[in-house]
# Entry
Amino acid sequence: MKDTDKKKPTVHDLTVYLRESSYLPDSRKEYKFRNKTGYVLTEQVDTNDFITELKSDFGNHILPTLDKLNSLQNCVDKFGDITFWGDNLKRVIAENKLLA
# Structure
């Protein structure tokens, strides 16, 4: 970890970033405005509908999830099972003896 004094990982400690789908329930991972790679906005899309759905994802799922991540254990509980990312998170925590 770059900053062991703060006893928390920083954005530079993990090289793989989680996309918004990591914070969404399965029912919101693919729908009219989302596919497997992210949000889809084309010329044919009704932008008002798109904005409504985007606000729903952030307001009902993404931001509340982020708000609950107030400890390293919360992060491990939420993301520890994600292939590669979860393993790296646990490794950094173990290497720096951040959790008992």
Q: What stands out?
A: Residues 34 and 40 are 6 Å apart (CA to CA). Strands lie at 34-35, 38-39. The first helix runs from residue 47 to 68. The chain has a mean pLDDT of 85.
